[in-house]
Amino acid sequence: MNGLTLVGIAIVVFVAAYAGYGRWLVKTWGIDPKAKTPAVQYEDGQDYAPASRFTVFSHQFSSITGAGPVTGPIIAAMFGWAPALLWLLVGGVFFGAVQDFTALYASVKNKGKSMGMLIEQYVGKTGRRLFLLFCWLFTLLVLAAFADILANTFQGMTKTGELNVAGAQAASISMLYIVVAMGFGEYIRRFKPTGAVKFAVAIVLVVAMFAAGMHCPLYFDADTWRYVTFGYCFIASVLPMWLLMEPRDYLSSFLLLGMVFGGVVGVLVANPTLNMPAFVGFEVNGQSMFPILFITIACGAVSGFHSLVSSGTSSKAVESERDMLCVGYGAMLVESLLGVVALVIACAAASNGVLPKGTPFQIFGNAVGGFFQMFGLPVSVSTCVVTMCVSALAMTTIDSVARIGRMSFQELFTPSEGETAGPAASLCMNTYFSTTITLVLAFLLCKAGYMNIWPLFGAGNQLLSALVLISLAVFLRTTGRKGWMLYVPMTFMFIVTMTALVMSVVGIVTKLQAGTFVVMVDGLQLVLALALMTLAVLVVKHCGKELICGKEQSPQTEW
């Protein structure tokens, strides 16, 4: 099988899904192009800030496109390219894109409320608090994992003692991105340039930042970059969306979309042959395809984290309800396409059915760097571009996660209607306190290292998707809309993720019995795994009861 055929099939499937299934969802549930969106109605210059369709798409795509769509498919290729490809196509179209769009839709129709506050409205106070606690714990895992990825990408020295030039250059460019984005955001707000002018200015700024960063690399160690990363997260969490996150994501989208475009064009030009079998087996290296395949390929098919972005930040920036399909459904399909490209590239780089040595990012980066060199870029430049793209994947996610974690913590202590917040609750609702407590705990988790956190992150992420889907099913039923299209995805994801978590707990207990149990690593994972499982069961209990026995309202009652 050649890679061109698979990428071509994926593009056709995703375009057809957007034009067919996506538009059918819009028609089935209904939108009002004339309605004032929460971003317009509640604009406050802080969290609510209306933006153009492409700007919000850039924020959504940049925030949800983390390490998952590259790492997941490449690791899952051990089962063969066919199972991974099928899950990317089916999961992306019927699971992930539907979840992301529905979360955005529900939030926009309900004053830009986050998933936790939506659950309180349609399920109840207890369901809301359980869900928010689950979300907050999950954001700690994401922050810790991605901060460690960034620190190790940016560190100035390799393990062999050599200068990590590409990483240091990417670090310098990333720091410039923060400063330049704030100036760019102020420029947009003050002068309100047209889309074409904004696009042209952004291109010039990106080129200038690359030129400056490559000539002035920053050679700091990993520990220093951890402190810098969490410092950036604090700033991104408290500053207005329009000042830092939206312009930064807009600028970053050129890197991420360019990486997808470069990968697709590279496959079209090289037309590589896949050197991996279509199917290896249901069990490989002691790993069972169920549930491992569906946990490993997360962001490229379905990710619970995406719903937090859709309902937490993007819903507060959508300027017109017309934009929701492009932002919610479209961004997910582009990410799924990136997953397919990563799968094709990895399988093409394999030899006799064995993937090349190295991390998934190294495999993907080397291949895409080779494609860029085909287009005439020097090796040093292409290496820096690929490294920067990889770091952008993590950095554009981590600032959104920090903000969502802060908001989840605040909402956890926000009193319901008719209640009054006490002194302790008022402190926890404070923006600076909630940001600090979230980042401090995530920093302590970061000490455990990316590899120790990632397994729990994957299972927790997919479990979150199951909880979000059942909560959204309640919203659709309660408001008189069809919700049957969510029933299979939510049931399947709950079974898959609970199975994976039970397997993780059994593995940790086995290590305890064998005497290889490490308290600060295995103990922490065990506590978090049990907490996530308990919270998930309680959330499903409350949402399931409302889904089966809840009263149906008029479709107009939520806005």
Which features would summarize this protein structure in a list?
559 residues, Amino acid/polyamine transporter I, 74% helix, disordered C terminus, mainly alpha
Describe the 3D structure.
The chain has 559 residues and is an all-alpha fold. It has one domain: Amino acid/polyamine transporter I, CATH 1.20.1740. Helices cover 74% and strands 1% of the residues. The protein contains 21 helices and two strands. Helix 15 packs across helix 16 (379-412). The protein starts with a helix and ends in a 10-residue tail after the last helix. The relative contact order is 0.17.
Count of structural domains: 1
At the first level of CATH, the class is: Mainly Alpha
* Computed Rg: 22 Å
Strand order of the largest sheet: 1-2
Helix count from the secondary structure assignment = 21
CATH architecture: Up-down Bundle
In helices, the fraction of residues equals: over 70%
Termini separation comes to 51 Å
Characterize the largest beta sheet: strand count, sense, and whether it forms a barrel.
2 strands, antiparallel
Low-confidence stretches: 555-559
Quick structural summary:
This protein is mainly alpha-helical and 559 residues long. The protein has one domain: Amino acid/polyamine transporter I (Up-down Bundle), CATH 1.20.1740.
